[in-house]
Amino acid sequence: MTQFLGTHVNKLDAKGRISIPAPFRASLRAAPGEAASLVLRPSHNLQCIEAWPIAAFQALATPLERLDVFSEEHDDLAATLYADAYPLEADKEGRIVLPESLVAHAGLSDTAVFMGLGRIFQIWEPAAADRRRAEARERARSRGLTIAGASA
Amino acid sequence: MTQFLGTHVNKLDAKGRISIPAPFRASLRAAPGEAASLVLRPSHNLQCIEAWPIAAFQALATPLERLDVFSEEHDDLAATLYADAYPLEADKEGRIVLPESLVAHAGLSDTAVFMGLGRIFQIWEPAAADRRRAEARERARSRGLTIAGASA
DNA sequence: TGGGAAGATTTGGGATATCATGGGCAAATA
DNA sequence: TATTTGCCCATGATATCCCAAATCTTCCCA
User: Fold this and answer.
1) Looking at beta carbons, which pairs linking A63-70 to residues 24 or more positions away fall under 8 Å?
2) Which of A72, B28, B43, B44 sits CB 3.0–4.6 Å from B37 for a disulfide?
């Protein structure tokens, strides 16, 4: 599986479009028959936009199918998962337009940072991205970062 | 399967018509031979209108077929499902006219929010929609339905 | 090792199609 | 005849498509 790695900075143009960093594009080609290639949603606990390749998003949603359609649980989860999600495709140049509500959630103005997180990536306001990375690094360290197989 | 994703805001005009958001229209093309493409019903426990594509609604009704037609259970279920349901079609522009009773149930005035929930969507009064989303998120979280990959 | 050159990539902007919305007209209703 | 309902067209706003300029990378060769 292709992965999203690294950090890239791009600009929003006057029309609200932004290029997806070229290294990320490979992973988001729409499956034949599918309309969208990417699903964007506001992160639950962070001030950023989460970008899911369509396949990963569908996998994310599978737990739903096991629930009774009329249950409160199903309704809550569906609302949480779907109501804020926006499927979209890139234009021929590999650009997307970010829905207004997501731009607001992430506090974006004219520059955005794409942060690779393996199977998904995030879109951040630049300063927030810096803070976030410093914080993540710090927390990982204090927790005694140990990744199986990775030796210092 | 096409899914209803995202949230869209549209207006009711003087005649009580409202456009179905374009992204939702694809999923409600009537099957050839079918009259209606969409079934509306008041939500059981929420102050909103539920919109079912005809196919999904039929699937919803399948449990009925396993019940004895003369049983109380059948009657109750059938009444719940069908009595308040309105089948309707969109006009050439993709608009529908909301039945009065549903407008009342959802407390709509001149603006309505379409909330995608995967296989169905809901129609809300804007402020109520906001409250609902916050509540759903909160309840999903407290129930411990953490979404894989979506946190930290 | 440095300078170009060729190819990608990002960014800009104009033309075009789509969409939301408003209003008119005619058939249906009462 | 007054009122409503459904059907159709008109319009402005918006988003999408397409072409092209400006940057940035990479690679090659002197």
Assistant:
1) A63/B145, A64/B118, A69/B60, A70/B44
2) B28
Mean pLDDT of A111-139: 93
Rounded to the nearest 10 degrees, the angle between the axes of helix B126-142 and helix A72-82 is 110
Please answer yes or no on whether A60 and B6 come within 8 Å at the CB atom.
no
Chain B closest-CA separation from residue A115 CA (Å): 13
d(CA B46, CA B26): 26
- pLDDT digit string, tens, across residues A59-105: 988 888 777 777 888 889 999 999 999 999 999 889 999 999 999 99
Largest CA distance in chain A: 51
CA–CA dist B43, B64 (Å, integer): 19
DSSP designation for A28: G
* Mean pLDDT estimate for chain B: 84
B6:A83 CB<8 A: yes
Q: How far, in Å, CA of A138 to CA of A141, rounded? A: 5
DSSP 8-class letter at A118? B
Q: Check residue B149 and give its pLDDT.
A: 41
Neighbours of A148 (CB within 10 A): 4
Interface contact flag, B46 A75, Cβ < 8 Å: yes
Strand C nucleotides within a 7 Å radius of protein CB atoms: 8-14, 18-24
What are the chain A neighbours of B45 within 8 Å (beta carbons)? 72
Phi and psi torsions of A132, nearest 5°: -60, -45
Task: Calculate mean pLDDT across residues B123-128.
Answer: 96
For B58-68, how does the pLDDT look when each residue is reduced to its tens digit (9 = 90+)? 887 787 777 77
Dist. CA B88–CA B99, nearest whole Å: 10
Size of interface A-B (CB pairs under 8 A): 85
Per CATH, the homologous superfamily of domain A7-126 is Transcriptional regulator MraZ domain (3.40.1550.20)
